[in-house]
Amino acid sequence: MPVGMAFYGWGMTRASLDKQPADVAAMFDSTAERYDLLNSLMTGGQDRRWRREVVRAVDARPGERILDLAAGTGTSSVPFAEAGAETVACDFSLGMLRVGVRRQAGAERLRFVAGDALRLPFADGTFDAVTISFGLRNVADTDLAIRELRRVAKPGGRLLVCEVSHPPNGLLAAGHKLHLRYGLPLLARVSSNPDSYRYLAESTLAWPSQAALAERIQKAGWAKVRWRDLTFGVVALHHAINPG
Asked: Which InterPro entries match (predicted)?
């Protein structure tokens, strides 16, 4: 996610696909308290399974340094810290970070940092693994964010991207698109924050396929790029290694 503390404003909450940082930040600020609950409701609890798969794929080890970008309230970051890794939960939403600091107050080896995905506030080669879940599609420049993640990863460092995707099965893909185009807008009508549902639908429909994202990761300098579908391809995990 693009982070920029100077961008925080209070006037707009609509996050259009041009991804103006102030709009996206305001949207996430407004949902911070209910964000984890809304995720579970929208995914039918699948978000917990996806987080478990991310934890397995990152394979955090004692003494490692892990960057969890777009970490929100830090729910996704805690398992890395519990595995013994020094973990940084980084996000662009001050509202999300404030909630995370409060909720994860007892977590060891976990710290919260406000930072810009396009200008990460870390030195080159800092982290053994870098991961971003459901945040890459929110950045203003996806390719630059992927390059920034590589810059702060050590040679041989691991990348794990968990993001919405597109079912490869044609029938499932059609049903998924119908849900995004008509199902989520219905939820938006009864939601206290309808813009977040509309944005989710629009950004998912506009997101590249698994193969196209893998190609962009490789063009950013990552090696051994591969992916694995979750929930029939509604979500995909992309893995890569920084060749140094």
From this structure: SAM-dependent_MTases_sf, UbiE/COQ5_MeTrFase
